[in-house]
Amino acid sequence: IATDPPVLLMDEPFGAVDAQTRADLEDLVRSVWRRTGVTTVFVTHDIDEAVYLGQRVLVLSSPPTVVQEDLPVDLPGERDQLTTRSDPRFTELRAHLYAQIRRAKRGGGPVPPPPASLPGPGPDHHDRPQSGDGAAPPPLQTKGTVGRCSRLST
C-alpha cells in the first residue's frame, strides 16, 4: 500500500488466524479500501468473508475453470460485523453462493441469482469513497474460488 499500487491482490491472507482476529482484519481491509480506493482482489474460500468484504463475488466453475457467476453484493457500503451478518440480504447472498459452489463442484450450470430484496439502491449503487477529482475509485472486488482452482494466475 505504501507504493500506491493500482490493484491489491490478497490471496487468502486470513487463513491462519483466529475468528476474532479475522473479523478485525476484515474491518481493517474495508477501512483501508474506503480510505485509499485501491481496487482489491480478494481470494477466499470463505463464503461469509466474500459477502462481507465484497461489492461483487466471482464464483469459478470446476475445471475447465470459467467464471460461473459474477454476483453483485448489494449490501450497504457501511458494514459492521454484527449488523451486516444478521441482515436478511446477507443470508440470501450467502445461501445463493453456497448453492452455486455446490453446483460447480458437481459440474452443473449456474443457479439463478437471488432477487434483490432490499429497498433503495440496487447493485449498481456503491457507497464508496471519492477520489480527489470526484470520481469514485474502483470497487472492492472479491474472488471466490471453487474446486481445484485456488490461485489467480496471469
Strand order of the largest sheet: 1-2-5-3-4
Helix content: 25-40%
Structural class based on helices, strands and sheet pairing: alpha/beta
Strand residue content: 15-25%
The biggest sheet, with number of strands, parallel, antiparallel or mixed sense and barrel status, is: 5 strands, mixed
In whole angstroms, the N-to-C terminal distance is 21 Å
General form: globular
Rounded to the nearest angstrom, the radius of gyration is 15 Å
Number of strands: 5
Key structural traits:
31% helix, alpha/beta, 154 residues, globular, 5-stranded mixed beta sheet
Short description:
The chain has about 150 residues and is of the alpha/beta class. It has helices at about 20-35, 45-55, 80-85, 90-105, and strands at about 5-10, 40-45, 55-60, 65-70, 140-145.
What does this structure look like?
There is one protein chain. The protein is of the alpha/beta class and 154 residues long. It contains four helices and five strands; from the N terminus they run E-H-E-H-E-E-H-H-E. Helix 2 crosses helix 4.
